[in-house]
């Protein structure tokens, strides 16, 4: 692996040390990234980040607002900051390394030359384990050991602020402290049923309207919410009113050098006082209960109160006073924080470890317009656990198992990625895993699970078909059934007849977590894109699981969408594609290709389900169309020849990423000569950081570049991968992994997409591992 070396010069006066970054320094470092609402990061890129250091800058929610999270370590009466930017302490640890894997962010630090620290943030990705996937929970483990061979007197401190519990920082927060000691274990369920909803009883009527109005521009309305929060706290603050709930521990605290006596879990519970189910402010959830937990030992002290009071208490005393502030108040009024201090005692060469855990507990996750109208879908974790504390205790005690499962998962991603695209490819896939899965919400029941995707940052829509499409390679690679759990709600809503059009819907709701449909037909129309996506993804799932029953179950509506493709795909009307920011255009070569591949996919679906006449007819139409398409959309006179952005536009070119569907489904519809042509062409149009999406702009999208790389020659594939890995390490962008960037500057192209699940598309090369070798399936 390559190791980038970065000197920090911008923060003269503060010293964070010199950190190396392995395999590279990402634009933003994932800290707690497990769900749309458990998504806290550390900005690193030069557009506003601090270069990749945990200390000296507040962590933020993906959208930019501060989620206060502090770490201090006191060594022989001297306190060093290892996380966050409290202005009450100006001495910092030296960070020496940051490493990311698919599930972990690992910071290595040194406090004053006396103590070595390893802080590990673990957000698990468990594609085969619905129970663990359903918990929007995340770990932070702190290991400490003497750095100089001498024993040191050590105390550890960490807190979170109430900024986690709502994006409306004027809202009142409430909190409490508790301890539990139970043995919690999840309820067990058999495998999910193969038919995922009572299709027999559901209404089956389809929309039939075919005309639609072209909307010419789409807002991506996310003003930067960068950096407000504790960094800008009011100068005056009112004193908290500490009211002891427990007497301070009577005896001297015991040392916990790795062998403290466990007595359950201690937790701070924090929440928005007025719960607003299914509401968001600044993208954060306005409902749910947050828990900040650790082991309940005799060396633990705790305190809630104003930031300056709680942190000040630790800075003065090295411990907290076990009191609770009961002056429930706005999040930004004398910022309430929730602290833990651990008296490690005498620290020598034995490693002392303390595990902390953050968890979000919501009962209901999604409002969904299903077969029988709008219903409330419970969060899936509520099926497994009876209470918030049972879930949190189970998760805490699961750390060893979760950590070892995570290491196995990390190794799988690393070795498969290395085999497919080398070390640079590992840098991409391992950063993408948490982000892609972090857009998912697991709902309903273990027997009938539905997974909902948030179109994070671009529009905030629920279950956007053309965002699931770029996400879907990671599901195909890791567990294709997850894709079915995402497609199900789209089928259910449209088969119930709520959507009035013949072609597929774009999304199930304008604002996550509401999947309440678009019964008025007022949606972001991308008719060709979504019909092609639905047919291609449904077949991709069914091929890999041999679930032809699923194809039969949904045959009628798939056929309806295919009829639309037959009418519209060859000569596409003026419309937008998934790259809506690039504007509408008629005769888009790449969009037509998606539609034609969709028709051939439908031919295979027909054959797999015994619709023999349709199978013959659709096969013939697709082959006819693909011949014509080659005469319309390719500039054979150019040197080298290449596909055009739109038919007959000789000076234009395009990333022909929709060709990936032909390879993924093993259709062999498109001649190998087209693959070879594009593979030869791309190297002639690389800019410093990649190949532009098309000739209209200098920007590109790395998900689509990897779709192209996956089906290119080895040398072209390597060029895409090494160029994008290089970009990822040097881009000035500072939010979570953007997919859209300028190929010359490496920066945002005026649109700051961030943290989008489409980075699942970086797994396109790995999704091809399971591609069928033959495209012909004869009716049985
Ligand atoms: C820390 O401070 C306390 C109180 O001032 C003192 O008793 C103790 O010796 C100091 N410890 C070290 C290692 O300096
Ligand atoms: C950090 O490292 C620098 C350079 O080695 C050193 O001068 C400084 O004292 C260290 N700071 C801390 C807090 O350890
Ligand atoms: C938590 O720890 C405290 C102090 O050791 C102890 O008094 C209390 O009983 C513990 N709580 C539980 C539930 O075990
Ligand atoms: C919010 O959800 C909770 C949990 O399902 C429920 O008990 C409560 O009544 C809901 N609140 C409103 C206002 O619907
Ligand atoms: C979802 O719908 C509810 C009404 O049922 C509304 O209160 C809430 O604000 C909506 N959420 C979003 C994110 O728009
Ligand atoms: C904490 O320190 C303050 C002075 O800094 C002192 O007045 C107070 O007694 C100490 N509290 C405890 C519990 O040690
Ligand atoms: C689209 O392409 C077809 C076939 O080349 C052509 O006949 C038609 O005029 C084109 N439409 C537009 C709007 O350019
Ligand atoms: C093939 O499908 C098209 C589109 O539905 C239809 O118009 C045509 O009649 C079909 N041909 C045959 C032979 O079924
Ligand atoms: C041809 O492509 C260019 C971008 O390269 C675009 O600006 C132009 O509008 C296109 N021309 C036509 C006639 O569509
Ligand atoms: C479907 O089956 C027919 C024979 O009935 C065959 O000619 C055709 O190639 C098959 N199409 C696909 C896509 O498998």
Features:
single chain, 780 residues, alpha+beta, Beta-galactosidase, Chain A, domain 5, ten-stranded mixed beta sheet, five-stranded antiparallel beta sheet, 17 helices, disordered N terminus, binds 2-acetamido-2-deoxy-beta-D-glucopyranose
Q: Unreliable segments (pLDDT under 50, ≥5 consecutive)? A: 1-13, 195-201, 232-261
Q: Could you say which overall geometry the principal axes of the C-alpha atoms support?
A: globular
Distance between the termini: 49 Å
How much of the polypeptide forms β-strand, as a percent range?
15-25%
Helix count equals 17
Bound molecules: 2-acetamido-2-deoxy-beta-D-glucopyranose
Looking at the overall shape, the CATH architecture of the domain at 69-190 and 249-390 is Distorted Sandwich
The CATH first-level class of the domain at 69-190 and 249-390 comes to Mainly Beta
Average of the residue pLDDT scores: 92
Number of strands: 31
Q: Strand order across the biggest sheet?
A: 1-2-8-9-10-11-22-18-15-13
Briefly note the structural class of the backbone: alpha+beta
Indicate the percent of residues in helices: 25-40%
Largest sheet: 10 strands, mixed
CATH-assigned fold name of the domain at 69-190 and 249-390: Beta-galactosidase, Chain A, domain 5
**Rg over alpha carbons:** 27 Å
Signal peptide: 1-17
Keywords: Signal
Biased composition (Basic residues): 233-252
Protein name: Glutaminase A
Structure in words:
- This protein is of the alpha+beta class and 780 residues long.
- It has a domain at 69-190 and 249-390: Distorted Sandwich (Beta-galactosidase, Chain A, domain 5), CATH 2.70.98.
- Helices cover 29% and strands 22% of the residues.
- The strands form nine sheets. Strands 1-2-8-9-10-11-22-18-15-13 form a ten-stranded mixed β-sheet.
- Helix 5 packs across helix 16 (714-730).
- The longest helix is centred in the middle third of the chain and has 39 residues, at 399-437.
- The two termini are 49 Å apart.
- The site of one 2-acetamido-2-deoxy-beta-D-glucopyranose has 4 residues, from helix 10 and helix 12.
- One 2-acetamido-2-deoxy-beta-D-glucopyranose (NAG) binds next to loops.
């Amino acid at each position: 692996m390559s190791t980038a070396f970065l000197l920090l010069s911008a923060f003269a006066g503060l010293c964070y040390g010199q950190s190396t970054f392995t395999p590279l320094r990402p634009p933003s470092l994932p800290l707690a990234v497990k769900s749309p609402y458990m998504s806290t990061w550390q900005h690193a890129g030069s557009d506003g980040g601090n270069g990749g250091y945990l200390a000296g800058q507040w962590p933020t929610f993906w959208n930019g607002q501060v989620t206060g999270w502090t770490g201090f370590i006191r060594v022989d009466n001297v306190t060093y900051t290892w996380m966050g930017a409290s202005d009450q302490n100006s001495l910092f640890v030296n960070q020496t390394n940051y490493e990311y894997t698919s599930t972990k962010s690992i910071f290595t630090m040194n406090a004053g030359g006396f103590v070595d620290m390893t802080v590990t943030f673990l957000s698990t990705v468990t594609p085969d384990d619905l129970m663990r996937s359903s918990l929007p929970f995340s770990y932070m483990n702190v290991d400490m050991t003497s750095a100089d061979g001498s024993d040191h007197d050590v105390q550890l401190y960490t807190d979170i602020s109430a900024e986690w519990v709502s994006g409306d920082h004027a809202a009142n927060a409430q909190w409490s402290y508790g301890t539990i000691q139970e043995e919690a274990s999840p309820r067990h369920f058999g495998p999910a049923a193969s038919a995922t909803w009572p299709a027999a009883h559901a209404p089956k009527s389809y929309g039939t309207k075919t005309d639609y109005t072209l909307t010419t521009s789409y807002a991506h309305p996310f003003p930067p919410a960068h950096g407000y929060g504790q960094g800008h706290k009011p100068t005056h603050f009112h004193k908290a009113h500490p009211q002891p709930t427990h007497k301070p521990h009577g005896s001297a605290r015991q040392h916990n050098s790795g062998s403290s006596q466990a007595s359950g879990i201690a937790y701070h519970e924090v929440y928005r006082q007025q719960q607003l189910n299914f509401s968001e402010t600044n993208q954060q959830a306005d409902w749910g209960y947050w828990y900040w937990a650790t082991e309940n030992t005799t060396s633990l002290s705790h305190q809630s109160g104003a930031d300056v009071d709680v942190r000040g208490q630790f800075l003065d005393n090295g411990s907290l006073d076990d009191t609770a502030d009961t002056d429930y108040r706005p999040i930004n009024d004398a910022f309430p924080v929730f602290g833990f201090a651990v008296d490690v005692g005498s620290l020598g060469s034995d490693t002392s470890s303390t595990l902390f855990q953050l968890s979000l507990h919501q009962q209901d996750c999604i409002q969904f317009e299903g077969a029988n109208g709008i219903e409330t879908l419970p969060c899936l974790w509520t099926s497994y656990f009876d209470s918030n504390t049972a879930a949190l205790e189970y998760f805490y005690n699961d750390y060893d198992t979760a950590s070892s499962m995570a290491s196995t998962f990390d190794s799988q991603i690393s070795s498969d990625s290395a085999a497919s695209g080398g070390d640079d490819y590992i840098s991409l896939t391992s950063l993408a895993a948490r982000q892609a899965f972090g857009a998912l919400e697991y709902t309903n029941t273990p027997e009938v699970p539905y997974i909902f995707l948030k179109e994070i940052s671009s529009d905030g829509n629920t279950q956007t078909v053309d965002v699931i499409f770029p996400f879907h390679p990671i599901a195909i690679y890791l567990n294709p059934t997850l894709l079915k759990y995402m497609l199900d709600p789209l089928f259910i809503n449209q088969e119930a007849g709520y959507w009035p059009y013949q072609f597929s819907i774009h999304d199930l709701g304008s604002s996550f977590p509401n999947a309440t449909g678009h019964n008025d037909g007022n949606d972001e129309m991308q008719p060709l894109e979504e019909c092609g996506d639905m047919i291609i993804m449904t077949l991709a799932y069914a091929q890999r699981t041999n679930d032809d029953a699923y194809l039969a179950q949904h045959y009628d509506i798939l056929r309806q969408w295919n009829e639309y493709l037959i009418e519209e795909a060859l000569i596409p009307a003026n419309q937008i594609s998934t790259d809506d920011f690039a504007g509408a255009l008629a005769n888009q070569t790449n969009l037509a290709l998606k539609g034609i591949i969709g028709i051939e996919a439908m031919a295979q679906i027909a054959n797999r389900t015994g619709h023999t006449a349709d199978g013959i007819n659709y096969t013939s139409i697709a082959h006819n169309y693909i011949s014509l398409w080659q005469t319309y959309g390719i500039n054979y006179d150019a040197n080298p020849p290449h596909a055009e952005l739109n038919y007959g536009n000789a000076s234009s070119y395009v990333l022909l990423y929709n060709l990936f569907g032909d390879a993924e489904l093993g259709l062999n519809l498109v001649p190998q000569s087209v693959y070879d042509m594009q593979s030869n062409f791309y190297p002639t149009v690389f800019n410093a950081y990649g190949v532009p999406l098309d000739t209209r702009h200098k920007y590109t999208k790395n998900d689509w570049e990897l779709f192209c790389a996956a089906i290119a020659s080895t040398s072209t594939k390597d060029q895409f991968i090494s160029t994008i890995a290089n970009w990822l390490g040097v881009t000035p962008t500072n939010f979570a992994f953007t997919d859209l960037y300028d190929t010359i500057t490496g920066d945002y192209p005026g649109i700051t997409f961030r943290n989008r699940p489409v980075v699942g598309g970086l797994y396109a090369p790995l999704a091809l591992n399971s591609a069928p070798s033959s495209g012909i399936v004869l009716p049985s």
